[in-house]
Design brief:
- Keywords: Acyltransferase, Repeat, Transferase.
- This is UDP-3-O-[3-hydroxymyristoyl] glucosamine N-acyltransferase.
- It holds the Pfam family Hexapep.
- This protein has 135 residues and is mostly beta strands.
- It has a single domain, classed as Hexapeptide repeat proteins (UDP N-Acetylglucosamine Acyltransferase, domain 1).
- It has no helices and 19 strands.
């Protein structure tokens, strides 16, 4: 049986330890809080201070930066990037290769399509078809 953690050196030469999440084997940094029922696929990274709610599904290659909040039952498709301090509301869906900027907020139940960019600090709400609602 292999070890249940990985040590990775960051750009400042510091070694960070990530544990493998029991549900999907994605990497969770020390200080991140991930609900046991969340699925974190292998190849995904959850940074320190991030929170991932119950039933969330984080795809392969997703990077959730420090202090980001992922609500319950959120679906984040592969290779998306959730920047620091961003917040994704419960039940939202984030598409493949989509970038959610720093401090951006995606409303509950919103649908953000593939290859989209939500700018830093932007607040987005959509209907179930992905059409943006007035703020």
């Amino acid at each position: 049986m292999g070890k249940n953690y990985v040590d990775i050196e960051n750009e400042r030469g510091e070694t960070l330890r990530y544990r493998k999440h029991s549900n999907g084997r994605g990497l969770i940094a020390h200080g991140a809080k991930v609900h046991a029922s969340a699925m974190i696929e292998a190849g995904a990274y959850i940074e320190p201070g991030a929170h991932v709610g119950a039933g969330a599904r984080i795809g392969h290659g997703v990077w959730v930066e420090h202090d980001a909040t992922i609500g319950p039952d959120v679906l984040i498709a592969p290779h998306a990037h959730i920047a620091s301090q961003a917040a994704i509301g419960a039940g939202a869906k984030i598409g493949v290769r989509t970038y959610i900027g720093e401090r951006a907020q995606v409303a509950i139940g919103s649908l953000i399509g593939d290859d989209e960019t939500i700018q830093d600090g932007e607040h987005v709400a959509t209907d179930r078809r992905g059409l943006r609602l007035a703020a």
